[in-house]
């Protein structure tokens, strides 16, 4: 996407009165309002991780029921530390990853390039590995990574019984279990258990503060006090011990207060939205019903036609349907990710169908 197209799309989305997928882009003034909501701005800023950063760490550790949590500027850094910790503690340089997982798809293989680790794939199926697949790994591994939900497979989750079985299987082969929980906030409705119950199955969990929660940036690595002590040392060595990070911390606290309680509503309404979209001619939704408030939608049109239609609808009617379409391996079929958040909650099935009809009529021109 060219810079001009991106700016035009952002401007159109910002001006929309109604949004089905996603949220209105935040301005810097919006971020300042989040800071007001997330903490006492008359207090002192953090100094290398105290103050509001410590408050956030304690809040997250309490939510996930862990001994400690350590703030990181990025999730990529947090996950490298988690994998390095496992390798150092077990003496094993191999980790079990999914080929669609974040470490393989979006971190430029930092675990290998920076830490000298190597990976083995328990499965290539578009889902997280099963307990049997963990048990049948052909070599010892230091850490088994499970991404909750597995984003690049379509935001899919295991069942609670499947997840508990994977936890037991990882321990049985002498491996640590690490949850890539960037979007673990979205996972509680499908799994039917609290954040602390989910995190209790793993030795460590990474969470993101801008995914779902809408913070500026930042992440946390949670686990034992020993892991936290190790993580603080390696955070410094990786260059992540930043002088002040209070803006990220207070917007994360605001997100925990505002967005986290609404996630169950988002997930419930995502099922309504998905059902309405799956009824469109030639449409396919996956997973159906959605496991979280995000899912994938395929339509029988070229991506360019759908992106142009989304932009035209936004500029002409001030209604945002869905954009970010990408062509697939099947000619004439495009896919996008749908995110059901606060702006979508007011949409009825009838309204979704009516707007979809106008959207598709533009795509067919």
TrEMBL record:
The keyword Lyase applies. Residues 26-289 form the Aromatic amino acid beta-eliminating lyase/threonine aldolase domain. The keyword Disulfide bond does not apply. It comes from the Bacteria. Its cofactor is pyridoxal 5'-phosphate. Keywords: Lyase, Pyridoxal phosphate. GO terms for molecular function: lyase activity. Belongs to the threonine aldolase family. This is Beta-eliminating lyase-related protein.
